[in-house]
Amino acid sequence: VTITKLKTTVLITATLLVLASIIVNQRTNLLIYSMTSSELPELLEPKDEGEEVTWFDD
């Protein structure tokens, strides 16, 4: 019984270590994917800022 528990524990630990190393190795790709996979947020309604606002593209 003890050897079976030890084997199971070692197997689970090894699997978690492999998954953690893959995540660390692919962290940049995962970050880029998470930033680009969602839909774009909706634009805010335009506001009237008044005459004192200077737009640089006018």
Q: Could you list the spans in which at least 5 consecutive residues all have pLDDT below 50? A: none
Query: Oligomeric state of the chains?
Result: single chain
Secondary structure class reads mainly alpha
Number of strands: 0
What is the strand content? under 5%
Secondary-structure element string: HH
Mean pLDDT: 87
Question: Radius of gyration, rounded?
Answer: 26 Å
Instruction: Describe the global form.
Output: rod-shaped
The number of helical runs is 2
Helix content: 55-70%
State the distance separating the first and last CA atoms.
79 Å
Largest sheet: none
Describe it for me?
By secondary structure, the chain is mainly alpha-helical. The chain has a domain at 2-34. The protein is 59% helix and 0% strand. The chain contains 2 helices and no strands. The longest helix has 24 residues, at 2-25.
In terms of topology, how is this protein built?
Layout: H1 2-25, H2 27-36
Keywords:
about 60 residues; mainly alpha; 2 helices; about 60% helix
Question: Outline of this structure?
Answer:
The protein is built from 2 helices and no strands. The protein has helices spanning 2-25, 27-36.
